[in-house]
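Notes from hallway chat w/ T.B., transcribed later so I don't forget. T.B. wanted the structure written out for a chain they're using in a teaching module, and asked if we could keep both sequence and structure tokens in one place. Agreed to drop them here.
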Amino acid sequence: MSEIINRVAQSKLMTFDLEDYYPKGERKVLDIKDWLYEGFILREKEFRAHIEAEDWSAYQDCFVALYCSSDAIIPGWAYMLTSSRLVPFAKKVVVGDLDALETSLYQTILEQLDVTDFADKPVIIKGCSNKPVPENAYIMAVAKIQQVAKSVMYGEACSSVPIFKKK
């Protein structure tokens, strides 16, 4: 009987798991809809009163997604004013939903990522994750890794989908 050989373990295939780079920290969503008259009209005086009444320390060391869940038209200064109060407390503030926040966090991480270890090697970007890794993070990862890798695949070693191969 011949010995079973694990060819995946012996290959030069490198696995890149975006979940390994997931930033630790609480995520919070700040919906300014409740600060608008009838949820739709921004009245500056009332809006500023809500800004002054808010307990900004509740956002200490959090990642904050700032948005409005109603169809109101929000002027840029309203987000700027709100974020100016959040900045001393929050780790990061973005205008948008949680997916926009996660995308922004990964963009910062991936822009600073050193990918020289992947040079001229086959790389598989792990597909499944237990953390909320946004789809945009996978696009940013392949764009970064394909600059140096021999090839890029998506999925698991046992069932991967070819994405890129250097010519």
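Follow-up for T.B.: Residues 98-112 form the longest helix (15 residues). Might be a good example for the class.
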